[in-house]
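Hello,

Following up on my earlier ticket. Below are the three sequence lines again, exactly as submitted.
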Amino acid sequence: MNAKLAMVIDSAKCIDCKACVAACKQANGVSRGVWRNWIKEAVPPVENGKLGRGHFQPGACMHCDEPSCVIACPTGATFKDKADGSVVIDPKLCIGCGNCIPSCPYGARFRDPVRRIADKCTYCPERRAAGLPPACVDTCPTKARVFGDISDPNSDAAKLLAANQGKVVRVIAKQNDTKPNMYYIASTAPDGWAVKPVNPLSFDALSQVVAPLVKYAVGLSGLGVLAMLGRQLLVGQKPDVGTPHEGPEKDKKEDGHDAR
Amino acid sequence: MKRSTTLFAALILALAAVSLAFAAEGNARKGKYLYRQKCRSCHGVSASDLSPSSKTQAEWKKAFAKPEAIKCYKDWKGVTPEEKNDIFAYLHDFAKDSPSPAKCN
Amino acid sequence: MSSNISRRDFLRLAGMAATATAATAAQAALAPEARAAGAVTAPQWESKFGACDMCFNRCGLIARVERGVIKKLDPNPKFTKSRGMLCARGNAGVDQVYDPERIKTPMLRVGNRGEGKWKAIGWDEALDLAASKMKDIAAKYTRCGMLFSAGADTQSQFVHRFAEAFGSYNITSHESLCLLSGNRAFVDTFGDVPLPDVRSSKYVILAGANRMEALVTPDSMDLMTIMREGAKVVVLDPRYTKSAALASEWHAIKPGTDMAFMLALAHVIITEKLYDPKFVAERTSGLDQLAAHVAEMTPAWAEAETGIPAADILRMARELAAAAPAAMVYPGRRSSDYENSTQIRRSFAIVNALLGNWDRPGGLVPARPAGLKKVPFEPPFYDDNPPGRVDAKSVPLLFDDEGSFVITRENIIKGAPYPLKGWFVYKTNPMATAPDRRKTREMIDKLEFMVVVDIAMSDTAWMADLVLPAPSALERQDPVQALQAGAEGACLVWRDPVIPALHQSRPVFEILKTLSVKLGFPEAFDFDIPKYREMQLAALPEAAEILKRDGVYYPPNPPLGGTDGQPFKTPSTKIELYSNRYADLGLDPLPVYASPKASPDAGRKFRLVAGRSACVTQASSTNNALLSEFEPENTLWLNEESAKELGVKQGDVVQVESPAGKGELKALVTPKIRKDTVYMLSGFGTISGKLSHTTGVGASIVELMESRFDAICGNSAIHETFVSVKKKGAA
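Thanks for your patience. The regenerated structure is below:
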């Protein structure tokens, strides 16, 4: 059976110390001003005129089972790794077109300003190869982030899921359940920040009908690539989309969460 | 403002009282030097490990009231009465129940 | 960015991409949504143990080093004190090492002081100069004419040793700008500075301690764990800190009224007889005086002072007592708040005493044995020295080995009781951490020679005559250090370099060793670090091997309760609810509450309070490249209603002013702070020309804070300043 890597987050343990974010930047050489992971703060409730219990929500790429970014990618650079279920960007194939950035409803992707290609959480494959957990998981003071293969019942992540059956929730974009592999225990607060995935219109239509074939064609066609690079130049003139650290996006209509 | 002036005056008086109470008897800083020179050669080596925080102020007072009774008194030959007072001031001022106990470790 | 790319580059890149893409995309596209990524190989790391130095916690770490370059710092899982974590600052330790603005060579000031004109010089010249200047000062002003200040560093003990051998009594550290009031109060009550055993506690009151941001290991993590297990954590803070956000209960207490809250707890516990009568009778003294003292200090009385409802105070007192002895008022660390902070902390200590939590799981425990040996030496005595420290007798209960930085500074400016003209500074930064920066500058202007040893060009280094580059903690060999973790016992760490020292940096140990030869007392440093460690570990023969294997060593830890039946180290041998020492000194033997002073100036409505972010260690980390991404500037927290009255909107630049100075920074308009209080982070608005992330960025808190001190121990009192706030440009 293939592995299914996932992150199970006991967000009520999170103290918003940013250790996971710092560790990620250091481990992966993430450029200044962009972030592969984040901690979002729920707006605290007001109880009797007083601020109530706060809640912090660590996040990153959710390595979805039905990833909208994979559909949006014109070159096949973004794909779902069948061996472990992670969503991978092949830097050799990425042309930096930027399509995948708005296509992710969770704001997990950004364009690396130095390498000028798409970037996001990778679950730290080099560290895993060295037998270490992803940097964010390893460094977390309260061990709010737990990582592992949830198809293996003996993994920490699977055990945590099993122990919290009925209490596990996910942040999802309602109109487009991408089947994220990021599980939260008890609370998704803050919710309402996932946005509707945005794909280039024509591309979206095409990919839904004959995705593999079209991709193949677009991938092979120098013209298609040129067109995408043209888009990159345009996108590059604006500030990058997908700095999730900045907090919830404005368009909040399409979201929700599911309880399992 | 007035309150703090009064407080300050009280402190000055208190300090005068304290210095009369114990510090006046010897020079604790010199005592520290003398202790290291004259006592450390045995204490911590061949004799028991000893420092000001080994005893309370009352215990040091009691010991130095009758130094002849101290086990190693026979080895104190080179110590003048003034030096003895300095050493006492050091041990007493940094005793374990003193306001500034000597740090161990 | 891509927008800068030329058209020709664009076509060339496009062509390359098209070619490269075509081949692989052909395979990829066959199953574009699921294919196997190629095997990723493990990095060619060497893993080396270390101990973090980004704050005082010293968390055990593992450095991943590739071809002589530190790639990543990870937590050492065997270092249980930190619960196997490394915080954001710890991770950013790499950027401290590779900071392009680091001091690289010895630098001699060639312009006016603070002007930033330097000349790089060699080590021989630098150390000859330092030695001859120190000799001159000793000859002119006695050896006490030199002040030595060292930060919370593992090698700081060598600065103390050097000062003693040199013959100066004037030594300060960060402690009198931080934690002495708390230490004073607990030494005078319990005869000891206890450690909180948070892990086993059922009820913890955090008054002014923001453990979720001012991280202390293992307490910060343990507070989260025990809440999960059903324990209650109450936070009293005028700000909705992250600790407040995560606590079981938060009260936005009026600043300066913590003592009223504590005395009301004592009132309830005594009047309702909720204390353990046996413990109180056998182990404390002064219950009757305390009972009389707090007789009128009802929860209703405390409500009027603190703003916390009486019913809540009553309930919390009962809950706290019901959970005792696994309950505590958390002693806290930084206690440099008010002129009566020692008495405030005495009230904390007294409530703990009533809970009978001494040396009990979940209570306050004495420091555990570490087994380290001191390395003795025999410094000479100089008969011409003045009788004591330059700040001696300024307050009744100065800690002789710490003194008071702010009083020392005052006396240097005055030149009394004797002139002090030289300053040796190691890795501490009073220009950015001591209240009233102008006074620190004034003090420095009185000096004839000032040398600073540090990694980066701090504001204090920027003022020096001579600056010497130190390696970071990852580049040097350190003695053994004992760390305390509550009931779980002490642990020992040491450091070996994970990479060779960069640039021309030299550890302060080597600097001092060389100076000791030049100044004629080489016997004080007659060892190297390995030899020193051997002497430290003389009683722990197995420790060195285990330290090499695990990066940490745990000495035997006797069970709690070992002090049962033993006398306390106080004059009465009991926990002194009523302090005989204070009575003898003419001080209040029981903490006497007075409402905090109102602002003396109607224009200055806001009390300025200090605090922490988990990404900042005061002024020592704000210029770190990675951490500056999290805290790029400081802002003034301003309550939304107060902001409305002032016409200040989110992000407006405001001008903040106090009698000490002024500053400009952006306002953070928020419901997370009381209307009468404002807050900003320290470490910004710096002046050094080599701190590009913080110089000219935000406002300096020490420019605004007035210099006050604790009347009993001389600890700095940094919450006594009221400031005015107005929108920039407003009349």
